[in-house]
Design brief:
The protein has 370 residues and is mainly α. It has nine helices and seven strands.
Length: 370
Amino acid sequence: MSNPPGSWPGNAMPPTQPGPGWHQAPPPGMPVGQYAGRPPQPGPHSPVGWQQQGAWQQQGAWHQPVPGPPSGGNVQKKILGILLATCVLALAGFVALLILNRGPDYAHEDYEAPPVTENAPDQVQIPATDEEAREILRNNTAYPAVAPDHVNCEITPMDLDGLDQATLQERMNDFSACLMRVWDRPLAAQGLTMFRPSITVYASEMSTACGTIAADEYNAFYCGADQMLYYHLELHRALPTVNTPLGAETVLSHEFAHFIQGRAGITGARHRLMATMTDEEILALTRRSEVQADCLAAQWVRANMTALEVDDGVVAGLITLIESIGDDPDAPEYRNHGAPEIRRAWFEIGLGTGEVHQCNSWTAPEEQVR
């Protein structure tokens, strides 16, 4: 199958890249972007009290004289003391139970996502010089941001086989509120102006600001020309690994990461540099963009692990998904997203930390973005 250049997999607006196929990067104006360990277990317990030598053999204990019967007043005091101790113990047990059963402190609980918009408030900006472009990539304004450890989006994972086009589009646009809950405040705190982009689900030929998308372009992509997201209704049939639990949400999170790159100036900086690069240099730059989006997508997963009860099985399925859309080593001319093991490595970085600067692929050694 063929997919729009630079979409899922891919990223919007890159200059023309070599060769056909869903791996190739987009021509100008086309879409972009496709889209840890357990703590150490405690050691053996030390001996408990009743195992201590001689503890139950206290010398002379059974030789002590038996006291006489207590007076009436003492009995009443003893009963009251027992009742009071019982109440204190019961209250302490109740408090302890509340503490043990209390969930995490969810971040941004008072957050209300803005309405979905189909019109970006501004255009992706292109820096004036190559030097400015490189500075934006390496030391971006967004890098000090930190995604929250826990959010509570209260979403139901999408059943791709059970949703028609209109319903899936509605569900995906509802889901974008969760993406905003994770990213809006941390990025706004760094001076980025965020908005909530629309997500269009398509199943037939469609005209976009990034060009015409064919009906058989089974893809998900971010279009830098209008800063909106697009998703093919049958993507999970063309790429079965998308049908893993939270697979569609992770694909959209990857595309939303490209949207973040657009808002942060990364997309414009990349295209400024690509304008004078060779094909091989363009592929290398595009790979850096894609693995950064993988890392940011994983940070969305990380933020939702508790609320959505993301277990090891779900994580393993998402890693398989990321690996499945890695570059084909037998087609080096289409190496625009990163080898499977490279994509996995960046995804796992995002699973381990919410610090956005850890996803800075632009300063990573070449062997980490091959």
